[in-house]
Amino acid sequence: MSAFLKQLYADRLAFAGLLIVLALGLSALLAPALAPYPEDVYDIHPAQRLQPPSRQHPFGTNHMGADLLSRVLFGARITVVIATVAVGSALLVGVPIGLVAGFYPGWASELLMRLADVFLSLPQAVLAIAIAQTLGPSIPNVILALSITYWPWFARVVFAEVRSLKNEVFVEATQALGVSPWRTLLLHVLPNVATPIIVRSSIGMGYTILTAAMLGFLGLGAQPPTPEWGREIAEARQYLPEAWWYATFPGLAIFVTVMGFNLLGDGLRDVLDPRLRRGRP
Amino acid sequence: MRRLLYTAKRLALMVPTLFGLVVLVFVISRVIPADPVALLAGERATPQQIEALRHRYGLDRPLPVQLLAYLRQLARGDLGTSLYSGRPITTDLFGRFPATLELTLAAMAITVLLGVPLGVLAALYRNSWFDHLLRAVTVSGLAIASFWLAIMLQLLFSMELRLLPLGGRIGVPPPRALTGLFVLDALLTGNGAALRSALQHLCLPAFTLAFPALATVVRFTRAGVLDVLHSDFILYERAMGLPRPLIVGKYLLRNAMAATLTQIGLLFGVLLAGAVVVETVFDWPGIGLYAVNAIVLSDYNAILGFTLWSGFLYVLVNLLTDLGLMLLDPREATR
Q1: How many domains would you assign to chain B?
Q2: Which of A122, A252, A255, A266 to mutate to test the interface with B (most CBs of B within 10 A)?
Q3: Domains of chain A by start residue, with CATH
Q4: Three-state secondary structure call for residue B299
Q5: CA of B145: which chain A residue's CA is closest?
Q6: Is B297 on the interface with A (CB under 8 A)?
Q7: Domain that holds residue B217
Q8: What is the value of pTM for the model shown?
């Protein structure tokens, strides 16, 4: 574990990604303590309306007079919950499907993978929009729409890996020893596909955060006054160009967060899977 | 002959994918919602109107029968009627598609014309300051929310510097419609004023749409060129003393382009999805803006029409990419 961390530390960009992700987690967890005006998130202060960034309000205030820094910090909570639950459920659906379909070829496996392909035959964001619109605008529905669109990625990646692992000597050996297929699958095959799953998850977090923000921006996610980042930017548009800070800071928060997950994902791939080393000739 | 067979096989494979796509959209529209008719009818419909609609659309029949009817309707090229415009959705989509196509093609042009040379240079000058700088830019490109980038560009170039228009497609009367693509029409009819205005309006939306795609193309081109750069045949050509420009231009690029071309095909879907938000921010009258208006108005048929249409285009472009790959590398046909 320490060797792993040391390697990750050596890759400065990946380590920066890890720090960003940790900072996101901390601000989500400690938002009520970190936010300068935690009560501000839902309160209305007409006198403080659309104040530029200042010592009292480092990110300025919004059209309701709420402190934007506090709202961005509370927005981190929503983002973390949406992305973790969406990627987590996509993983819980996609990984078993990929495992089983890769290990037991047959018509059922074929059907499952064709199903995954159908999902991948639509641009992901378009599919997410259609599902979110059908379900109605709310955060749980955004999570559902994102997991429905993301599971095929896990299924595809795991399927491809398992299919090639199946012919490896160690799998043959466990079978020769009379180990039950399920035990082989869970204890011997699954650990060997952990790397692509971890890398996919990290990149998926970034992707999911971007798509969730887009759904929020289009009005398909959280409803006001929830401090969701995408929604915040949509509301800020009518106060441009005067209140530039209002649209700028939530967008920066999305940018830094997604960057963190992408850098971490790239770094994890390099550390965990030397075959795919970035910049490799 | 082999190429023909391959083409036929790829065409045949399109059928189950498209069928799956239709079933997926059908499931989204008829099975997921608690009451699809209420969605179709919009928010202001009375219970009586909903009942009437339920019967009229045949939504009181069993699901398999509904699916069959839906397939039959689609086979006629009928995507239903927009609740808002009252027109057939196919008419609406076709009318607005040239705008989206123009925007997507412009973004694609920026992506390829800029991304491929940059990727090649990054690979040839690996680990130089240029390579590092480009990597920082591409990493950003994949992390930025395009609606936010659009707003920031508007803020800078339209509101502060007042260099480019805030939104819309053209500021003067549009050129005579030949293709529906304003830039091309203006060129063909020799309409200088329209050309200038169309290009000015195209600048920011096309760049916004291209930015994330650019990142992907640079990354894949760089990786592809690096792969080929270290292959035996390039080493041989270098040993033969062939001049570097000839090696790069004639032998390296053709072999390195396969990975890039695959990505470009996949990117079309990304661009199409990106068009939804970019068109919204820049008020660009294409099918993306149509879909967003449909979302706002709960025009359910129109959203499904847009979804199907995007899926169809995406499948089609992937087919064309595969066929393009085959022409570039005949070995593909035998795989």
Answers
A1: 1
A2: A122
A3: 2-42+59-276 (1.10.3720.10)
A4: coil
A5: A210
A6: no
A7: 89-334
A8: 0.88
